[in-house]
Every structure is written in structure tokens, then in C-alpha cells.
Amino acid sequence: MIDKYSKYRELISRIDSAIEDGFYLEATWIAYAILEDRLVSALKESGGGPSIRMLGPKIGKIKSRQTSSLKMRQAFFGDMIQRLSDWAKKRNALMHALADERLDVPAIDAESESVALEGRELAREFSAACKRFKKLNAK
Questions:
Q1: The whole model's pTM is what?
Q2: Which of 6, 13, 87, 108 is the most buried (most CB within 10 A)?
Q3: Radius of gyration for the chain, computed over Cα atoms and rounded to the nearest angstrom
């Protein structure tokens, strides 16, 4: 079994390769998987609770816990959580637009590149924030 750090390093490398090769939807999907996993980790580390299925409600729970936890504010600082929420909405809109008539293929390509690039940065940033949060909680 591969350790979490090695797996994340491999997944980030795959995001980089997918973006480099123009496979933006693949990069977005991997970023989504990383972010989903890190949100679950942050929720467990901040007190657990019942399982939450969707990304949006997980982000909402992090936001609400952040207001009452100095350590969460220190780890997940600035507008990171809001940017994550905004990205999730863009990603959802893109996924729903793939098969309908709202966007033509060039527009989907442009939007998918933007969402992939932003997702890559958020995956890196949020993973680092989760690591900070665990270290703060260990003190």
C-alpha cells in the first residue's frame, strides 16, 4: 500500500501532466478527488461528525467551524475556503455543460483549462493547509 504523501505527489504529478497534454477534464477530476479527500480529513481533524456526501456541504461545514476555531483560521487563512467554494461551483457548471447546448466545444475547452489550472493550485494549497491544521492540533 502506498503512503498518503507518495500518492498525493503522484496525483499532483498526474494533474501537471494532464494539463501539459491538454487533458483538462482529467486534471479537474483528479483535483476534485484530492480536494474531496482533504475536506474529509479537515472535518475529521476538526471534530468529526456525521458523514457528508457532497463537496458543497463539506465546504460549508468547514466555513462554519472556521468561525469558532482559531487553529482553523490559522491553517485555512485568507480567502482559501471561499475560492474553494467558487471553484466547486465552476467545476459543477462545467460538468453539467459538457453534454448540453449551453457551451460549444471551444468554450468548454477554455473553461475546462481555467477550472483545471485553478483546481491544481487549490489542491496544492488546501493540502498544505490540512497539513498545517494537523500540526497546529498536535501542539
A1: 0.92
A2: 87
A3: 16
Buried/exposed code over 100-113 (b: 16+ C-beta within 10 A; e: otherwise): eeebeeeebeebbb
* Boundaries of every domain in the chain: 4-138
What is the grid cell recorded at 135? 500540526
Per-residue pLDDT tens for 5-52? 899 899 999 999 999 999 999 999 999 999 999 999 999 999 888 888
Q: How far apart are CA 76 and CA 129, in angstroms?
A: 6
At residue 129 the predicted structure's pLDDT band, cuts being 50, 70 and 90, is: very high
Checking if the pLDDT of 98 tops 80, the result is: yes
Residue whose C-alpha cell is 457532497: 54
Burial code of 69-80, b = ≥16 C-beta within 10 A, e = fewer? bebbeebbeeeb
